[in-house]
Target: DENN domain-containing protein 3
Amino acid sequence: MAENVPSGLLEACVVLGVSNERLKELGLLQGKDKEPLVEAEVLQVHAPPFESSSNGTEHDHAPAFGRVQRRRSFKKKRDRPVSTISNSGQTNEPVVAASDDLSVPQNIDLIALPQLCFPDGLRITHESREDYYHFLVFTDVFGNQTHGVVAQYCKPVHFQLDNGIHQNGHRLNKLQRLFTTYSICIISKYPYYNALRDCLSSFLLQLKTSRMCEFEEQVKEFSAKLALVPIPPPGPLHVVFNLRPFQIELPSRLDVDRPVMDLDLHLPFLCFKPKQILQIISCILMEQRVVFLSTNWAKLTLVAECFMIFIHPLRWQHPFVPVLSHQMLDFIMAPTAYVMGCHTYHFEEIAEELDDLVLIDIDQGTVLSSSSNRLELPDVPLTARDCFIFRAKGLQLHYDLDVCRVGSRTDINELRAHRRQWQHKVNTVILNVTMELIVNIFSEVCDFLNYEHRVFNSEEFLRSRETTDHEFYKKVLDTHIFHSFLRERLNRKNDAFTRMQLNIRSETRRMRAMTESPRRPTIDEIRKYVRAENGLNSRLGISMPNLADHRLLTVPVRQTSIGTMPFQSGSWSPSRPIKTFKLPEFPPPLAYQYVQSYYNDLIKELSKAISAATPDDSALLARYYYLRGLVNSVVGKRVDALRDFQSLYKTDMDIFPAALLNTLVESLPAEERRTAERRPDLKRLISWVKRENEREQARPMDGGTVKRFELPKKHLHMEDFVRRVQESGIVKDQGTIQRLFEALTVGQQKQVDPEMFRFFYNFWKETEAAAQDVDLPVVVLEHLETDECVYKLSSSVKTSHGVGKIAMTQRRLFLLTEGRPGYVEITKFRDIEDVKISSAPFLLLRIPTLKIKTSLRKETFEANLKSECDLWHLMIKEMWAGRKIADDHKDPQFMEQALTNALLMDAVVGCLQSQKAIFAATKLAYFDKKKLEVPMMVPKTTSETLKHKINPSLDQTSPLAVDVLLYTPGQLGVSELDGGGNPKLWCALSDGKVLVFDAASWSMQQNSVQVGKSRLNCMLAVNQQQLWIGSKDSFIYIINPRSVSCNKQLTEHRSEVTGLALEERTDKFSQTVAYSCSEDGSVIVWDVSMLQVRRQFRVSCDRLQCIQIHASMLWCCSRDCLLEVRRNGTVHRKVSLPDHLQSSPRGFSSFLFFNESEKLWAGSADAGELCVWHCTDLNKPFISIQLTDCTGVVCMIKVKNQIWVGCQGKTRGKIYVVDTDRYTVEKELMAHDDSVQTLCSAEDRYVLSGAARADGKIAIWKVE
Model:
């Protein structure tokens, strides 16, 4: 197989030590040097494929999971026999095989390996030494890592005085007994440090009780056994195997995006204080040259690897060599960043040689600089530091304290299992603590990203940080690891970082994510910073660049009580119980039939596990299928392997091995390919693999570029101007930017010069900073709402309420009085009746005066705003119009858009500084002009019925169509971490994106879930674990409502999935059955628990649109007819399209049953009428209900005794509420600016409607 096929646990096993020839030479040197230092050599290399004793090579059964070809070989000449003495001491045998071809993995450097396996050097000693273990990491030029575990063990050697060397028996009184050390190094692609150390410990026990003549064969057999061990996929299944006396457990990766973690993460906490750990993490994040030092070689790799895990999801991308022998110390002279490790003995030598090294002494727990005794690098931000130190103090790190209450265990494997459980628990807590640290440092980076243009506004991000943290961020933002982190955020990677970021996001932030407004510190946030001594807030230092995203601005941790901060274990990943799968006993000899029998037994055991697993535990089933697929691919059963991997569609797509499948498909012989393509599911899988391979080749190698925002250097036409403004983060909406372009180019050529853009950008940012520097007295804060922000402050002016500054928030105008600071409310925007400019006499002059008449006061407010009068007049009128339209339409986004327009007016006037500035600003008075237009008028019935509107396309530059809505009720007893118990609203947008809203607060619950790339047509809540979505790409995607993740697919349909229906269960013991249909007339009946096809049939019709189950019969709606179909697929009854609608090109669009009156209701996509039939007698004349001003029915739902019908009106999308008793239209609602695409009911209390692309909003309607 090719390189993409995963290997087993073993990559290679290398034996190193003193060669036979060198041992003979040493016999002549005895007495000259008591303990000579000798050069170690590679003596044996064992790597798959292994030779078979009966069938030549083991190419047929490939014990290393597809490693069936030699890559390069290392060949050692025959040495003259030199003997060592084993405990059983037998005849003379060579230590090394005479002339073997040694298969060497490509990325293993055999020249450097002896130095790494003997970093202290190799000596012939007079005394035996204890076995010693340490760990290695090898990195190739592409950054791919392999890992090594080294065991050093002593063997006795006898030298005869006449230079003859004998073993055990000849003239022992004249032999000198010395000891030499050998190393066995297991090399693996996976960092299974603890497991491989256990394997070597078991093997050394065997070596010490065996004869030397068996040495090579034993090493080879040991290597072959490890090559037979499959690596478990990410998830809740560990693999267990026996190497007596131990039972070895291979833990799986916690997540697809995480590496294997088979080490003790608490080791750094035992070696360093929390402050030192933070210093080390800071050095790594800033890509310093870091050197770990210790007298214990094992600590170097284990501690360094822990820190690599602590910075996840950031990944170290520079040289990583945690063990340097004394011959390799010149590596430290490298000019690049690196993480290396060496013996403490070299501390002085290294410190004197180079400046600016970070020297970390593991044994002493110190972090120093080579140029001074103190480390003078910036610390991590204070917020994150305080939180981490608080968490670290609460860690329980001592196993002995945990088991002091437990009795002594007599079974070694039981003792080891208990220790593993404790370590797993500790590791989980530490992972959460370190992930929380990284989230606290970098979570707000995402608020300064422009996803459409892949831009990071680093300057604005830095401005938003505390001044004391600037030095840290300046260094980190220029690193390679941060650049890769940005690339993953821009690719919207859903990893542990994203999940924790969502989990810790407050309800306030979720609510603010539902509005699009310029971001300033809210009153609630200002109160957090109030200084007790004078009651004024300090500068918050936050400059918000993106008006379209209000998800920034969380309360800093240090402003809360650290002692009360909640900590939830598993806050980035829901905890799941771990299961183990035990491998069969390894075959005794390396013969073909025994290995083949081992694989057959392994497949049988996996098949038993699959049969025994319950359908509800799909995650466990997926891991069994994955392992069986691996084994089948190894033994050459490629078609069976494809079947197993195909099963992942219905169990867990997250672990789908795309690279392995590509290799598997490419290696299919012609006959096997024909066999596979006879099965529709496998044929489709093969086609999918080909398409994905083509897409992968077309993708950029670096995962996409990341740009830093820069001011333009050339003139900008409309298109370039729109892109630049979006990149800057000032505003996203394309229409608003186009109006801004018109304002900046009034009276000149239609292009914006770079100087003008710079003036505008700088004025905008200066205005932001000035608004944040406003000192509001406590007495003022008490009058404002917690989410209000001060956006504009006038100069000091004379008013009818005294002298002071006029302040504008998103809700009101108030006067900040001078002298003794005070608060005088002017008006709320919704209370304004009129705004106008007049002039007041002052000496011989007339001063422009702004007059505001409100409904709550008889007297008119007047302010002598002088030169600011025209601007404030424009801004207040726009805010007033925005508030009126927002209230009429129950859509808060209109108010936020008006606020954005007002602030843009301010920036335009400020940067133009000319007579035409006010005229230019009028180009942005969108709502002031719009309020008098007829389409913006809201009829009384609509206003009374409409409760609220939501914009699900806030993070888009233009709206997306809302194609499907689904409401799911809340679940009692479900925690917030497990999806929450509140009801949810599921919203499918036109690009395959699914959003989730908390239906209790209508706040967006978390980021979107991408479900394919095509339009989504239908949704069905099957049960509490499954939500089905039918797509235009012919797939049915299955979302887990609790975790809000999509990792299952049903692929049996061959064309666009158009409808889903659920059959009512007759009793609690019956199986749940679901129906799905596609446009080609295909209907599939599903067993929901097993996700298996029960039946499949085809209905003869013109485009099957949707299905429903009524009275145990399946009703199908097509363009030309409605069909009642029996369970076996035969048509029972048929309702044809009425004669007067026969010319309709799209025919029927939707239908439903009203059970109480046994009526069948249907609508046409090209006619403004509803047709109603009697279900008991379809031959009776139907009832026609005319819908005035309707050009076509799109959807309909039943709510209580009403039918709500979503339509395309002549000018706008409408909803008609029809009385089912009188067959009359009760209400006609002006719902949206575009066609109503979808309707759903929320427990018959509310109806929710979604609109097509020109509107793209969700409306919430009250049901009477």
Remarks:
- Confidence is low (pLDDT under 50) at residues 52-102, 166-173, 529-570.
- The two ends are 67 Å apart (CA to CA).
